[in-house]
Every structure is written in C-alpha cells, then in structure tokens.
Design goal:
Layout: H1 12-23, H2 27-40, E1 45-51, E2 57-62, H3 69-74, H4 102-108, E3 111-117, E4 124-130, E5 133-140, E6 145-151, H5 158-163, H6 167-184, E7 189-194, E8 197-202, H7 207-215, E9 223-229, E10 234-240, E11 252-256, E12 259-261, H8 264-273, E13 286-291, E14 297-298, E15 309-310, H9 313-333, H10 341-344, H11 346-353, H12 385-392, H13 398-408, E16 416-418, H14 421-424, E17 434-437, E18 441-446, E19 449-454, H15 455-473, E20 478-488, H16 491-499, H17 501-506, E21 510-514, E22 517-524, H18 532-545, H19 550-565, H20 574-584, E23 600-604, H21 605-610
Parallel strand pairs: 1-7, 11-13
Antiparallel strand pairs: 1-2, 2-6, 3-4, 3-6, 4-5, 7-8, 9-10, 10-13, 11-12, 14-15, 16-17, 17-18, 18-19, 19-23, 20-22, 21-22
Bound molecules: adenosine-5'-diphosphate and magnesium ion.
Length: about 600
C-alpha cells in the first residue's frame, strides 16, 4: 500500500499571519506602510494618529486619490497591487510599494477599518476587516481620500504582542519612521498625534525648512547645502556644519529616489569628507538625497526595504565624497568672509565717525621685527610665508626672537591693539580691518557681523596645510639636534616606529633604535625644542593607538606636528595679523583645526544687537 503523503497546504489565515510577520514587526511598520501608501496615492496632506504607541490605534488619513468600491475590498488581498503589472515594472519603480502585501499583512493581525472615496464619486466606501475576513462593507459619507484605522495590533498573535517593548520604545520607532518619510517628502504636509498630543505639525515647503521643523533646530545656518549633478546620480541635500557633530549617531539620513535607506559604504564616504574637521568618535549629521535611474538600483533585496543595492556604488561613493568635501570647503569660505570692500568696511566707517579712542599702547616706530629675519615677510600674501618663516628659524631660535618681539610693544595684559584703518583705507587687502586682542584672538569684520579667530588654532591649520603640501612634494624639512633626544619606550612602541621608519623620515624625523631606547637625531624644523617630548609621545600614541590606515597615518602625524608647531603662538604685530588671516583663508579648510577645534567663530549682528 502506498504510504500516505504528509504535506498539507497551510490554511490562508495562517499563511497570511506568517507572511505578515515579515512585513509587520511592530506598530511602526504599520505606520510606515500606510503612510507610504498615502504618498503613492498622491496625497498632499497626511495625518497620523496613534494611541498607546500604536498598540490600541493607528490611524492614517490622507487626501490622495482614494479607492472605488471594488478596490476598497480587493486591496486587502495578498499580492493585490495597482503599482506593477508585469515583472519589467520592477525595474522602473517610482512608487514606495509594489509587493501588494502590506494591507493583507496588516489585516491578518489586527482589526482594520477603511473609509475611502474617489473624487468623481459622491459616496465613499467603508470596509471593516478582522483577521483577513471582510466583516462589513457599506456605503458611507466621507471626504476624498483614504482613512485607515488599525486597532488591536497582533490581537491574534500573542507571541508578537508580548514581544512589543515599552510605549516609549515603540513610539520611538514610530517617530523614526515618521521622520524618515516626512524628510523625504517636504512637499507633503504631515501631522503626528500621540495620545491626543500633537507631536509634529509639518507644513509643506523646502527641504531645509522641513529639516528644521522636524529637528527643531534654532538656527538654520547649521546646514551646509550639497549639490552635484552627474549622469549617474544627482545628489542634493544638506550636511550639518562640523561644529554640530554629535557624540551619538542620530541625524544621519540617506535617501534614494525619496526612499530612506541605510548604507554603511556611503556613510563611510560622508564621514570621510569630514575627516580632520570633526573630532574622532563624533558623528556629522547629514540629509543626503540621491536621484537615480530606478533600473540602476535594486530595492528588492530586503523585505522592509531599508537596504538597497546600487549598480554603480563605487562611482557614487567618490562623487558623494567629493561633493561633500567641496560643499564644506566652499561654505566655510564664502558666506562668512566678505570680499567686497564697499560693504565689508561698514563697521569701521561707523567707528571712524566717532571720536577716535586714544590708543592705549606705545609703539616703537623704529623697531623692525623682521630685520633679522628676511624670510618672514609680513606683507607677503603667499600662503606659505608664515610657516616658512618659522621653519627657517633654526632650531632653538624661536625663544630668542620671542624676547625681541616683546620690545615691539609695551603691552599690558588687558590692552587691545587696533590696526591702522586709515593707512589701509585704499589698500586692497581684504583682511586689513582686524583687531588683535591680548595676543590671542583676531577680530575681523565680516558680512554677518564679527569674526573672532583663535590665533593659535589658525596657525595650527596653516602649518598643517603647508606641511601637507610640502610632504606631497618632498620630505618635510628636518633639523639635526645637537644632542640626540632619547626616550625609553616599550616593545610595541619601538616596533611601531620601526615599521613606519621610512614614512617618519619623510615627515622629518631621523632616529635610531637601540634596545628599549628610541634615539631621535632630527625632527621637523617646525617643532620647537620644548615640544620634542610631547611631540614624540603624541606620535608614538598615533602610531600605536591611532588606528589609522596607511594612507591616513601621514595626515595624522602631520596634524600632531601642526599642533605642536603652533604651541607657542603669540602674535604681537598687526602685520602678523594680516599674514595669518590671509594665510588662513587660503587654506582649503579654515573653520576647524585638524584635530577638530573651532578656529573661527562668527558673532552675528543680531547677537550683538541683543546685547544692547
Ligand atoms: P502595494 O503598496 O505594494 O501596492 P499594499 O498592500 O500596500 O500594496 O496596497 C495595495 C493597494 O491598495 C495599492 O496598490 C493601492 O492600489 C491601494 N491602496 C492602498 N492604500 C491606499 C491609499 N491610501 N489610497 C489609495 N489607494 C490605496
Ligand atoms: Mg503599500
């Protein structure tokens, strides 16, 4: 006798419940699917109402195209979709949905009530479904569009229901979905209510406004626009200014064709663009939108569709990296600095109209700080002039020249040196209107108000820039020490120096290793004597714990050299102020030091006005 087969077909409701598990993991998934449907239906305004983090009620009301009586029933069937008709359509998707399983899945695990009306009909349809069974269908009076009410989610799947986290966590997920979708569609109005409280009320408008409304930023100056058009991809969006980078990952959003997705590869490209601008372990915020031919991506690889495959990901990576770098660079220079003489001098003009304040300082006009130092010409606008000046001063001489500088002015701690505006009146140097405060800060007039520059950090950035360009072309200038500097280090540290010997030579270090001792015979000219120890320790730290790839190591070490090379910065002359400002603003980046410290801070006219 033939043995009896053991395979059975699963009853529909069980099959639906299993399938539902893939699409609907928690209340937030329902919000996502229903809001996406509303967008696909062309809604201009979408309301989300949630009770008890979605456990009791999720309602989505839209003003989209609605459904007729037949579709209002059909839409709950598995694989019922109006969005694709054949397999080819999969390659030109412009809608969020296409699988036709969201509504079937939601209906399988909750009580759903649908009210919908198309605009060319006077009467709408009400459909009530429970566990995939149509319980009621009737004509109803309602406005154009669609309203879905989803109650008692997972009422028939206790395992799922028990698996739900606290209301806080679940509502957090809903908020996250809501934010992602609303960011992708700033042209649509959105509201979100939770337990009767309005959480968001987002008007339609430009993307920048949407970002600010969603994240409640007080100041939209924090967003740097990014834009790049290529044949393969169009990139637009915003990145947060480096100073807004946070210690926690958070406001990082990538979208492709208005669909949120996650991608560690592109995330890496964006982070890389911030290299040297923000501190380690802090995260830049970004809102980046790709527009790409739908046939060049595959949204089909993940059931909840947050992972997307890109045909030309490498190419996109490099476009992304360079467009963000460029945006950060461009943004930092132009909006803050005003190169237009007519308007940039508005503040000093006002100052001149008032009675001149008697200078508090005595200047020795015969003193020429540069007479012993031909290379550091302060009037030179050459971006290298400053660092060359420092580097050509032999090792150990910096201290001496410091002593001379002190004779230049007899400065009291509290005094302010003002540059001579009248003399510079017809001078075409953009940065002539600068004030030096206590040898530490430079204050300059700019379009939006006043720019305060930390002089030491400015020098750090300038030295960094100069060392980088020097390093690219030849080994960095080195000075031989009269006596070798010996330092006892442990095995792994020795090994690290040894492994990077040729790179370190290129960077201006000459050394030998005996037993446990690192003996340094030559250091980069930029490093003053008293900084050798610190520099050596920091380089060791960078080599051993810096976690840097080969290509990044040189940059990491040069950053340390710049920091230690600028350690003794004090500025004592107006000429030097001019040189520094000129040099700083010729650097590719001038808002942050290589280690991520703020160099330039702007005090806006509004902020000044508020003080009075
Ligand atoms: P998909 O979105 O993948 O097509 P769904 O199960 O989410 O599958 O929806 C099934 C169908 O129901 C959609 O294709 C659409 O025709 C219709 N539909 C769903 N929601 C709405 C809505 N808010 N407005 C108009 N039609 C809708
Ligand atoms: Mg859908």
């Amino acid at each position: 006798m033939a043995s009896q087969g053991i395979i059975q077909l699963l009853p529909d409701h069980i099959a639906n419940q299993i399938a539902a598990g893939e699409v609907i993991q928690r209340p937030a998934s329902v919000v996502k699917e229903l809001v996406e449907n509303a967008i696909d239906a062309g809604a201009k305004s979408i309301k989300v109402v949630v009770k008890d983090a979605g456990r009791t009620l999720i309602q989505i009301i839209d003003d989209g195209k609605g459904m007729n009586e037949d579709d209002a029933v059909l839409c709950f069937q598995r694989h019922a979709t109006s969005k694709i008709t054949n397999a080819d359509d999969l390659f030109k998707l412009t809608t969020k949905g296409f699988r036709g399983e969201a509504l079937a899945s939601i209906a399988a695990i909750s009580h759903v009530s649908l009210k919908t009306k198309v605009s060319d009909s006077d009467i709408g349809t009400l459909v009530e479904v429970e566990g995939n069974n149509i319980k009621n269908k009737e004509a109803t009076v309602c406005s154009n569009g669609t309203s879905f009410e989803v109650k008692n989610i997972f009422y028939n799947v206790p395992a799922r229901r028990n698996f739900l986290k606290s209301d806080n966590v679940e509502f957090g997920h809903i908020r996250e979905e809501f934010e992602r979708i609303s960011l992708a569609h700033p042209d649509i109005k959105f509201t979100l209510h939770h337990n009767g409280k309005e959480e968001y009320n987002l008007l339609n408008g430009p993307l920048r406004k949407r970002i600010i409304e969603v994240f409640g930023r007080s100041n939209n100056d924090q967003l740097v626009p990014v834009e790049e058009d290529t044949d393969i991809v169009k990139i637009k969006g915003y990145v947060g200014k480096p100073e807004t980078a946070r210690k926690t990952r958070g406001e990082q959003f990538l979208f492709v064709n208005q669909r949120f997705f996650k991608d560690s590869y592109f995330h890496h490209a964006i982070s890389k663009a911030f290299d040297g601008l923000i501190q380690d372990r802090s995260f830049p915020s970004y809102f980046i939108f790709f527009e790409i031919d739908p046939s060049k991506i595959d949204v089909n690889i993940h059931p909840t569709k947050t992972e997307i495959k890109f045909e030309e990901d490498r190419f996109i990576y490099s476009i992304l990296l360079s467009s963000i770098k460029q945006a950060l660079g461009k943004y930092n220079v132009f909006p803050t600095l005003d190169f237009d003489l007519d308007t940039s001098f508005d503040v000093p003009v006002e100052v001149r109209k008032t009675d001149p304040i008697e200078p508090q300082i005595k200047v020795n006009p015969l003193f020429n700080p540069f007479q012993n130092n031909t290379s550091a010409s302060p009037s030179s606008s050459n971006s290298n002039s400053f660092s060359k000046g420092i580097m050509n001063q032999g090792f150990g001489q910096i201290k001496n020249s410091d002593a001379d500088w002190e004779n230049f002015y007899s400065i009291k701690e509290e005094e302010i040196i003002e540059t001579n505006e009248i003399e510079f009146e017809n001078d075409l140097q953009q940065t002539s209107k600068s004030i030096l405060v206590r040898g530490k800060y430079l204050i300059s007039n700019c379009k939006s108000g006043l720019m305060v520059i930390d002089a030491k950090r400015a020098k750090e950035r300038i030295i960094y820039q100069n060392l980088i360009s020097e390093f690219i072309h030849k080994p960095i200038a080195s000075q031989q020490l009269l006596f070798p500097f010996d330092k006892t280090v442990n095995k792994s540290e020795l090994l690290a120096w040894q492994e990077s010997q040729s790179l370190l030579n290129q960077l201006g270090f000459n050394f030998s290793i005996e037993d446990q001792t690192l003996s340094i015979q030559g250091i980069p000219t930029i490093i003053p004597a008293e900084e050798i120890n610190t520099t050596t320790e920091e380089i060791t730290e960078t080599l051993v714990h810096g976690n840097l790839q080969k290509g990044e190591l040189a940059h990491g070490i040069i950053a340390k050299l710049a920091k230690n090379g600028s350690a003794n910065t004090t500025i004592r002359s107006e000429e030097e102020v001019t040189v520094i400002i000129n040099d700083l603003f010729q650097c590719e980046e001038h808002t942050y030091t290589p280690s991520g410290k703020l160099i330039v801070s702007t005090v806006t006219m509004e902020e000044i006005a508020q003080k009075f």
